[in-house]
């Protein structure tokens, strides 16, 4: 019997937030003979999970998640997709035993940075005997490779922008704020905050339209893994929607960290980037000594 089937006590759960990644992981797990159980996060996941066994849980409903883990023989879990909303204190439902075992759990869920919250969620799951695995362990071909994805390569100006934005993204990551930065003409013009990458790019497009960013210089988006980040959760991810937004913002391309970022819709993304004359490339900042 393939690992992860009901009855083995090692069934895979996918805790599904927003975006395309949860569906990629679910389909890949099924293709490998697993029968994943989906915990769709209310008001976050927009996928139709009718073809999978699933349960809808609120972001703060750890008690409901815990019950679902036990009822369905879950031994492994993947955290995938983005979560835009933090629960209010009155929405958090967690067993007293879990709160006692991990002091500060409620405070972290309410006020911690994204990485701190994800690490707390991992500890809660591990406390229930569930092994947390990364999305890249289920779908390894999603990891970005070094170098250009398509035919277009960054020119000298874009390379200078990549260096500036990468430095900013690393500083941002050390503060557990975000993973992305935009540089234009060697100057950092936007940092990703709680709004996420898409809204940051909309802000860049608005600044460009207002003339507050040069219309002659194009610029780049860089997304990097946070220093010290647990690779099992919230790796930087890009897809065709990211490409469309950088095009609307007048940028020349996207650079993501090779081996530590996820690329969705790879073939379609490469084709669309080539058609638009934009680059998508994997970089290795750690090899240049930029990351401690």
Automatic annotation (TrEMBL):
Signal peptide: none annotated. InterPro entries: LpxI, LpxI_C, LpxI_C_sf, LpxI_N. Residues 11-142 form the LpxI N-terminal domain. Coiled coil: none annotated. Pfam families: LpxI_C, LpxI_N. Residues 147-280 form the LpxI C-terminal domain. It comes from the Bacteria. PANTHER family: BLL4848 PROTEIN, LPXI FAMILY PROTEIN. This is LpxI family protein.
């Amino acid at each position: 019997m393939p690992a992860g089937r009901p009855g083995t006590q090692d069934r895979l759960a996918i805790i599904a937030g927003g975006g395309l990644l949860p569906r990629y992981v679910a389909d890949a797990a099924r293709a490998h003979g697993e029968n994943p159980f989906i915990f769709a996060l209310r008001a976050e996941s927009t996928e139709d999970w009718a073809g999978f066994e699933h349960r809808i849980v609120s972001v703060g409903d750890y008690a409901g998640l815990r019950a679902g883990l036990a009822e369905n023989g879950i031994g492994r879990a993947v955290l995938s997709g983005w979560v835009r909303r933090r629960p209010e204190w009155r929405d958090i439902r967690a067993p007293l035993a879990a709160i006692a075992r991990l002091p500060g759990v409620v405070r972290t869920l309410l006020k911690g940075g994204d990485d701190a919250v994800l690490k707390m969620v991992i500890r809660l799951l591990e406390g229930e005997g569930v092994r947390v695995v990364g999305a890249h362990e289920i779908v390894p071909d999603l990891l970005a490779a070094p170098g250009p994805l398509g035919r277009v390569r960054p020119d000298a100006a874009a390379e200078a922008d990549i260096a500036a934005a990468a430095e900013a993204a690393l500083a941002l990551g050390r503060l557990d704020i975000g993973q992305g930065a935009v540089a234009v003409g060697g100057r950092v013009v936007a940092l990703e905050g709680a709004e996420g990458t898409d809204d940051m790019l909309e802000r860049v497009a608005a600044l460009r339209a207002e003339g507050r960013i040069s219309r002659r210089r194009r610029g780049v988006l860089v997304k990097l893994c946070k220093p010290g980040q647990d690779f099992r959760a919230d790796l930087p991810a890009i897809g065709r929607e990211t490409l469309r937004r950088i095009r609307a913002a007048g940028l020349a391309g996207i650079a993501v960290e090779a081996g530590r970022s996820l690329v969705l819709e790879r073939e379609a993304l490469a084709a669309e980037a080539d058609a638009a004359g934009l680059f998508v490339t994997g970089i290795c900042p750690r090899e240049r000594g930029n990351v401690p």
